[in-house]
Each structure stands twice: as structure tokens, then as C-alpha cells.
């Protein structure tokens, strides 16, 4: 396995974080736990390393960066470097044998849904360290050529402005930016989606589970562009102890290609996006993840519009949560951040 660069999610687990990236390794681990996760496959960081080397991008990157005398150390330099480096990567072709392998995995994914079906997938970064929101994500990608194009674009996002600025703050040269894995996941036809925390990120209360969600895909919840419905569940009793239903005016939905933001019909805006039994089940899954991984979790979920409860609850990601923990026996707050 160590010499491979592409894997089905069910082939990997949390022990393969360095090989396949944390996102894919955790998805594989959840699948092994019997949880519902979308079908998909992982391209390891080794895939990008080979692509950069064999496409001649490595030499062009070195030549391009040589003109930044003294390094890339200002906002203007970040932006100029990002534009040039991403163009270099995005204009390169993936080696032919790698293209054929990626396409064969996509074809196998499609065949699971029936002959003639082109599965819609999400194409996300999957690094060996967690960097939420730092790299590009492409949703509702359909077709072989478009999949290859989005894989290349995710790889190119290793040189986005945010990443270059972060590298500079760490004293790391741009050319030493870590290679990215890529996670290719079948899209869930989401009625609603959101996040869950096995602890209150704001108060540090680890006796509560926080679930937030909204209509459509979860991107608007994850990005914080709207106020979602919010549920608080007591860990010990599994009862909902508080719910706040928001005026959910907009939602992100999949169209023929990609996604669009659209208005939520007026009659649905103040309707809870989750039933109580769905809230409780998501909380149970979150608590199981916390027990399994040993630290509070920050997870993402989606409710399929095509399946009945409880088979409609899919887990899209889990990672250690960043929570300020409060010691229950001590009135003084103890700050502890759970993160990888």
C-alpha cells in the first residue's frame, strides 16, 4: 500500500493519515465503524508529487520563484506568486497512466449506481494536516474530463494566496509547500446539511453536543455565511435541551453543473431543517466518534432527500474540534484546545 497513490475509502483508516490525508483516512475509519459515508476514493499526496515532477511543473516553478529576490514576503508578492504558480500547475496535463487510473476509479464509482450513470462528485483537498477552508473544493462535478480538471485545480490551490502567506509566517519557502491529497466523494442529494460539535466551542462545555444545520448543501453553514438552525443536546440524557430555528432565507443547491445559491421558499424559511429523531441520531453518531477517536469532534453531516430515516444520515467529515475546555470541578476556566 505504501507505494500506491490511489485508494478506495474502504481500504484505508485513521492509521493512514500520512498516506492518504486526514480527511480521507477519517472517512475510511468511519466506514469501518459501520457509519454511512459517501462512496469515494482518495488520491494521496504522492499523486501530486508525481504530477508536479513528471509534468515539468517542478522546473517551471523553480524558474518562476527565482525572480522573487529575497523570497516571497509581502501581500503583493503573495498575490503575484499565487497567480503565476497556479497558472503553471493548472496548465499541465496529468500523466496519461495516472489519468487512466483516476478514470477507471470514477468508472467503477459510476457502475455502482447502474449502467450509463455519470455520478456527481465533490472534489476536495485532503492534506496530512487539517487546514479547514484553506484549499479549494469543487462540488457537483460530473464527467471524466471535468473530474481530471478539478483534481488539477485542487492541486494548484496549494499555491493560493492564503497558503503562501501562511507558509511565510511559518518561515517555510513557497517551493516547500506540502503536497495535497484529493478526496473524490459521491455527492449526497442533501435535503439539509450542517455540522456537529461534541462540546460547545464557545463556552467549553463538554457535557453538551451542538448541532447546526440549514437547507441544501452544507457549504453555507461551514463557511458561516448564514445563521443556521441550532440544537443543543445533553450528552448524558441524549435529550434536546435547546433549539433555535433561524430564518433560513438562502440555500446552496446542486444544479446541472456546480452549485448555485438560491432563495428558500418563504413557507420553509422558519421550518426546522431537522426532525427531532434526526437531531438525536446525529448527536449519537457524534458521541460515538468522540469515544472512538478519544477527543471532542467537529463533524459534518448531510441528510439525503432520497432515503428514509435513519439511512438518510451521511457523515462527510470528522476531525478533532477546537474547543476551550472548562474543568467541571474547578470554577477557574482551563483552556485546552483539541486539534491535530
Uncertain segments: 330-335
The helix-strand sequence is EHHEHHHHEEHHEEEHEEEEHEE
Percent range for β-strand residues: 15-25%
Distance between the termini: 24 Å
CATH class category name of the largest domain: Alpha Beta
What is the total tally of β strands? 13
Largest sheet entry = 6 strands, antiparallel
Helix content: 25-40%
Provide mean pLDDT, rounded. Answer: 92
| CATH topology label of the largest domain | Dna Ligase, domain 1
Give the class from helix and strand content and strand pairing: alpha+beta
Largest sheet: spatial strand order = 9-8-7-6-12-13
Account of the 3D structure:
The structure is a single chain. With 340 residues, this protein is of the alpha+beta class. It has 2 domains: 181 residues, 2-Layer Sandwich (Dna Ligase, domain 1), CATH 3.30.1490.20; 131 residues, ATP-grasp fold, B domain (D-amino Acid Aminotransferase, Chain A, domain 1, 2-Layer Sandwich), CATH 3.30.470. Helix content is 33%, strand content 23%. The chain has 10 helices and 13 strands. The strands form 3 sheets. A 6-stranded antiparallel beta sheet has the order 9-8-7-6-12-13. Helix 4 packs antiparallel against helix 5, helix 5 runs antiparallel to helix 7 and helix 5 packs across helix 8. The protein is globular. The protein starts with 5 loop residues before the first strand and ends in a 20-residue tail after the last strand.
